[in-house]
Amino acid sequence: MPRKLRLFAVFSFFLLFFTLNYLAAAFWPVKQSLALGEWLSFNNLFPPAIQKHLVLVTADNGRGGGGQPIGRGLRFTAPGTFQARVALHGLIPLKTLVFEVRPVPRVYPGGQAVGLLLHAKGVIVIGYADVIATDGSRVSPAARAGLMVGDLILSIDGRPATSDQVVKEAICRAGREGRPVVLQVNRRGRLLRFEVQPRLCRRAGCYRIGLLIRDATAGVGTLTFYHPETRLYGALGHVVMDATTAHPVELAKGSLVEAFIQGVRPGEKGKPGEKIGVINENSSLSGTIEANTEYGIFGHLNRLPEHPLFRAPIPVALAHQVHPGRAQMLTVLTGNRLESFDVEIQRVNPFYERGRKDLIVRVTDPRLLHFTGGIIQGMSGSPLIQDGRLVGAVTHVFISTPEKGYGIFAERMVRACGLLAFPEVKPTFFDELRPSLLKAVVKYYIKQE
């Protein structure tokens, strides 16, 4: 291909790229969630040199309509969906915005250490145990039939597998009757059926099928927030996984109760630390666990606890209100004493899809670093406070750098439990297309060279 033709092709591609970018920015609506009464500044959207030439044009929606200089910002005093357009001299459109304006809930930040007990919707296969038959041979009927570690046994012989004891009794009954047991199993969303013939175990003196099973998972975490009007709470900021199978616990029911921290094992590089806690049976802090989601566990508290650090609830921050800078983390290190520690939010990623890496948080408090080495296991769910708002919760520690960890937006958590009516803001089609388009142009140019 002649050089002039190649240059023309590359110029055409870049012209198309920038034209699509302009059309996307000017006419493809960008959705933005706003808290009722919040002032929105446009200072970071456009270079200061052209801001004085920009006009914000809004439809007549009860705010007066017409256009106004962009430097005044924007504020809505009524909930609803509103559209605005940024235009050069009020004539050439540059950006179209759609605002979802809603009141944000006010909640009490948590920080209390809590013990969790989650009962699965069935029993979980956590391993195999060979059956020593009467002839001395070792057999594993369940493994031979195809059951795997991580399988969730939903029913046995048509009856719900509500506990490991129910399963054991059904196996013994089938063995005495000389027939196989029928198991209905959930394997990562697939429903499977197995028939397994119990064998008499010479050592145990009863019929077995060679499985190790468990019907509950327990652990220690941190309460993130609770809502005074509904007693709804959120904790952890991530899904509870079964420690043996590393699969999410399919929750049937669960309970939450305050934990008493007896000690702390500090974290080291490559070796995360942990809180060591026991259930505080005399505490008034308790509740139900009703959902185990990727954004944390949720349920209702039986009664509202008194907060030692906050006399009134605080607003939940929307994702765009969170920024790098100083913040405070609430957590318990000794007994049930709630304390505040200094941290720094180093990075904010509002468009991370799964929520586990919304924030990168670094512990800066000297006392916390001395006592724990940074973020440790059991801190999951510790609330993050910035500018008087609940902005997020700590979720995971960096194994190689224990003073750092990931966090989740509080907005995701309150939406997951139904307290926030905002639709989730995600990257637009053009946001996702733009990098691919630019990469295609570069590849094409290199290929032609």
TrEMBL record:
<dbReference type="InterPro" id="IPR009003">
    <property type="entry name" value="Peptidase_S1_PA"/>
</dbReference>
<feature type="domain" description="PDZ">
    <location>
        <begin position="122"/>
        <end position="189"/>
    </location>
</feature>
<protein>
    <submittedName>
        <fullName>Stage IV sporulation protein B</fullName>
    </submittedName>
</protein>
<dbReference type="InterPro" id="IPR036034">
    <property type="entry name" value="PDZ_sf"/>
</dbReference>
<dbReference type="Pfam" id="PF13180">
    <property type="entry name" value="PDZ_2"/>
</dbReference>
<dbReference type="InterPro" id="IPR008763">
    <property type="entry name" value="Peptidase_S55"/>
</dbReference>
<dbReference type="InterPro" id="IPR001478">
    <property type="entry name" value="PDZ"/>
</dbReference>
<feature type="domain" description="Peptidase S55">
    <location>
        <begin position="190"/>
        <end position="429"/>
    </location>
</feature>
<dbReference type="Pfam" id="PF05580">
    <property type="entry name" value="Peptidase_S55"/>
</dbReference>
<dbReference type="InterPro" id="IPR014219">
    <property type="entry name" value="SpoIVB"/>
</dbReference>
